[in-house]
Amino acid sequence: MGAPLMQGWLVPPPSSPEPERPAWRQALDARIDRWMAAPALYRWAVSNPLTRWFTRRRAERLFGLMAGFVHSQVLLACVRLGVLERVFERPRTLDELATLTGVPAPALDRLLRSAVAIELLALRGGGRFGLGPLGRPVASDPGLRAMIEHDAVLYEDLRDPLALLGASGPAGMHGYWLYTEGSEAQRTRQWSPEQVARYSQLMGQSQRFLIDELLAAYPFDDHACVLDVGGGQGGWVRALARHAPGLKLHMFDLPPVAHLARTQVAQAGLEHRIEVHGGSFAHDALPRGADLVTLLRVAHDHPDEVVRPLLAAIHAALPPGGTLLLAEPMAEPDGSPSAADAYYHFYLMAMGAGRLRTPAELMALMAEAGFSHMELVPNPMPLHGRILIGRKCAGTQHSVNKS
Ligand SMILES: C[S@@+](CC[C@H](N)C(=O)[O-])C[C@H]1O[C@@H](n2cnc3c(N)ncnc32)[C@H](O)[C@@H]1O
Fold it and tell me: pLDDT digit of tens for each residue in the chain (403 aa)?
């Protein structure tokens, strides 16, 4: 039962924090900091042709950090005004775009030139603007545009980053993702159908990127039955149904989301292939019978106290030899963090309860739940999510802690 182990990268268990550096090394670090921060060194370095490139690059990178918020707003304005789709139809002049967007030409000119500077747009001759290299994927993908529009909620939360760090008020992101209110709210609160539909639709639109990664990286048709936990509107199970015609499929999500998923499954004519279950993994048993459970972009929304019993419940629901596939954005291992980590650290903090974990941290949680033979499965675009698998060995049974 189950797919053979993939050619993945085995990840070492989470290491303890980096050991204290010896005193001589700390003194050297402090001296380098003082030396590199000295205005005199800066003046010397920019006047010297051999070192100028290094100092320029550092200044440009730092300026890039300062300008980052402006760049995000230029992108958001282009998306809100539909500028990218307009120039995708055909290159257009400033006056044409001013008429189409209703923004006065002098102000729009600044937006368009800013968009050229950050490669969303490009000059196409004759005073016309066309798509730049970074504008092309945005113009062609409504899901990406929905995510950019959604980021406005995060920008609002980040207007005062210290307030967010001090959790001095409820973040807008926390209100957007209703289920981050906690398990008691999931049991008792009547959420507005519009709010549930809003977050579920956004997830559905952005899930396509992860679906492509999964289908490219893992042999799903080696399994007989798949359960997707926290499956949203069922975009993944519907894609799997089309990809692997022999698979039996289940998905599980909170009742109002499961209701939306049922409609989507019925519209796709897949009721005979996909069974949709409504419930909360905080209170309800997971459906049995699947030899593969998928958990996509769910663990990072929750603290360890929620993820531990969830993984244990998945382990209990699987037969011996069954597999868990967990996929979501993950932090780069210590020592080589990527700039995307900063985005996810703050996004998940604004959501309220979850956190960005390294593959090794997730594997440690999976191991606690009883999984073994864990691997990080290579996938083409880790920015969209990384993929971990773990196996339930014959004879292992862990109790599910629902506290
Ligand atoms: C970030 S979304 C991911 C949805 C989907 N897996 C994807 O990748 O697009 C997290 C999903 O987990 C569901 N969820 C959150 N708490 C849950 C719970 N206690 N029980 C069941 N599902 C839950 C949410 O309703 C939501 O659909």
Answer: 334 344 444 545 555 667 899 999 999 999 999 999 999 999 999 999 999 999 999 999 999 999 999 999 999 999 999 999 999 999 999 999 999 999 999 999 999 999 999 999 999 999 999 999 999 999 999 999 999 999 999 999 998 899 889 876 567 888 888 888 777 777 667 788 898 999 998 999 889 899 999 999 999 999 999 999 999 999 999 999 999 999 999 999 999 999 999 999 999 999 999 999 999 999 999 999 999 999 999 999 999 999 999 999 999 999 999 999 999 999 987 667 788 999 999 999 999 889 999 999 999 999 999 999 999 999 999 999 999 999 999 765 554 444 3
- In this structure, the chain runs to a length of 403
Q: What is the pTM of this model?
A: 0.88
The whole-angstrom separation of Cα 240 and Cα 268 is: 13
User: 105 C-alpha vs ligand 1 centroid, how far in Å?
Assistant: 44
- Between the CA of 296 and the centroid of ligand 1 the distance, in Å, is 8
* Cβ-Cβ contacts under 8 Å for 187 (sequence gap 6 or more): 280, 282, 283
Ligand 1 atom 24, closest CA: 230
Residue 257 CA: nearest ligand 1 atom is: 25
- Which residues form the pocket of ligand 1, taking CB atoms under 6 Å from any ligand atom? 179, 186, 203, 207, 210, 230-232, 253-254, 257, 280-282, 296-298, 301
Phi/psi for 113 (5° steps) reads -70, -35
Nearest Cα to 392, choosing from 13, 14, 2?
2
